[in-house]
Amino acid sequence: MARRGSGLRTAVKIVKAIDKAQKKAARQAEQDRKRRQRELESRKREQERERERKVKELEKSNREAARQAEKEQKRQMRELSAQAKERERQQLVAEREETIREKALRKSAHEHEKSLYEARVQERAALRAHYIRMEIE
């Protein structure tokens, strides 16, 4: 025959099983809480990295834009300098041409005056010869 007990052992076993289940549930809940916390921190870190990456990209873009602007400004300065040099060269050429024209004009005026002088000299010589012939006659 089976011995009948008070059921205390069964009750203890049930209490132990309930206690074990509660501890397991508490551990599982703690693990779940920690896992959610880690995921949240991981997402925060990822968002921070993404924000930092965007800031770096923006800074890089700004540096590149500044570099391009400086490059464009230098190009424009070179272009303006080249234009100024070209204008100066053209002005020098124009001044030389003007000097040559003035010199040629003075030369032609001088030659004209010289030819007029020569004509007067020849006319006087002819008149002198004419008067000399008239006096001799």
Q: What is the fold's blueprint, element by element?
A:
Elements: H1 8-136
Q: Number of helix segments?
A: 1
Query: Residue ranges: pLDDT <50 for 5 or more in a row?
Result: none
Q: What is the CA-atom radius of gyration, in angstroms?
A: 58 Å
Strand content range: under 5%
State the end-to-end CA separation.
202 Å
Largest sheet: none
Provide the succession of SSEs: H
State the shape: rod-shaped
* Helix percent band: over 70%
Structural class: mainly alpha
Average of pLDDT: 93
Give the tags.
0% strand; 137 residues
Can you put this structure into words, describing what you see?
With 137 residues, the chain is mainly alpha-helical. Helices cover 94% and strands 0% of the residues. It is built from one helix and no strands. It has one helix spanning 8-136. It is rod-shaped and about 200 Å long. It starts with 7 loop residues before the first helix and ends with a helix. The mean pLDDT is 93.
